[in-house]
Amino acid sequence: MWFSTLSLIFGGCCSNAVTLEHVTSQYPNSGSLITFLQFFLISLHGLPTHLTWTRYGPRFKPRRIPLTPYLGQVALFYLISLLNNAAFAYQIPMPVHIIFRSGGLVISMLLGWLVSNKRYSFTQILSVLMVTLGVVLTTLSASRSTSASPSSSSSSSAETNPYIYATGILILTVALIFSGFLGILQDWTYTKYGRPTTSSTSSTNGSASPSQQALPASWQESMFYLHFLGLFLFLPLLPDLKSQISAINHRSPRTHFSVPLPSSITSFPFINLNLGTSIHISIPTPYLPLLLNTLTQLLCIAGVHMLTTRVSALTVTLVLVVRKAASLVLSVKGAVLWSVIARFSGLEGSGVGMGGKYGDVDGRMLWSGAVMVMAGTVGYTVGIKRSEKIRTNLKEE
């Protein structure tokens, strides 16, 4: 079980980062399409689990959490996903994207202090300051390349305009703020209705009714409804989605491959179909990495949800920090991995390399910021555990 969970997290999430970077480096304005495909596939995957068939036709199974608390979560989750993918259109390199999204502790602490009246230990405050400094260093590591003078680069002024990069950082910042509010809303929901559990048979009193046993696990319910209900929010974006699909269909190279046909199909005693021995298919090249990105997103999310139901919050944080570090290494050194993927998927020579569109970043500032963000994240989580232990000891006394 551990092997499958960690395989989903490291294999799925790291592969997702690689394919996402490849698609956005060629089509940086395809953020809405990427987000929609991810929502659609995850919803399609969860639909059979949450539907039941009656004599009147299919209907949704009863939920562990009412629909109303999900609505706010869905709206925030939709905006967060859309903004994070849209930021690639503003010259945000994948390494900066990964590290900046890890800086949500700052927003979480501020919102916890302002909204929930929480108090934090010295270790937590120091850790958040470290995360903040790390995010600042990471942001500056790429802004130096985007602000290069036009005379030193063959790129257009739009590609070297520092205001475009600043707009992307602002978009990621807004997404972090929404993430903080989503965390507060989820905490409130789980406090009232119970946290996600690893199996559908568990309940707060240690037993489950027959109707509860027939329900999907809580984490599966949460994952499904956050994506399924979010599909309806894409209706205003249909014109944008159509234009993105049109751009891929008409402005991208195509991949050609053949599918062999069984001899039983190509040869009949009395009918000559003239099908040949294979079917030749030609599709726009970006659809293959888009498909890989969507599938790996499903694996990544499933792995993270499974992990949260099996281990403590500290262990989850440590695993995800290591995963983000692995994604960062793959992003910086991802050309080698992508060349292997391209060779076996028929995409070799079909597009630019990983991160080639965005130019170089200052490696020392990038890695210094990454280390500070990850160390601060671990320190913050350790501070939470220490605070909980102190409160428990005081209650026992």
Helix and strand layout, with pairings?
Elements: H1 2-26, H2 31-50, E1 51-54, E2 57-60, H3 67-86, H4 94-101, H5 104-114, H6 122-146, H7 157-160, H8 162-193, H9 210-213, H10 218-228, H11 238-251, E3 254-260, H12 263-266, E4 278-284, H13 287-308, H14 313-332, H15 334-345, H16 363-396
Antiparallel strand pairs: 1-2, 3-4
Helix pairs in contact: 1-13, 1-14, 2-3, 2-10, 2-13, 3-8, 3-10, 4-6, 4-14, 5-8, 6-16, 14-16
Care to give the gist of this entry?
Its main location: membrane. This protein is mainly alpha-helical and 397 residues long.
Helix/strand-derived category reads: mainly alpha
User: What average pLDDT do the residues reach?
Assistant: 76
Give a quick account of the main beta sheet: strands, pairing sense, barrel closure.
2 strands, antiparallel
* Helix proportion range: 55-70%
Signal peptide: 1-15
GO molecular function: UDP-N-acetylglucosamine transmembrane transporter activity; UDP-xylose transmembrane transporter activity
GO cellular component, one term: Golgi membrane
Membrane topology: Multi-pass membrane protein
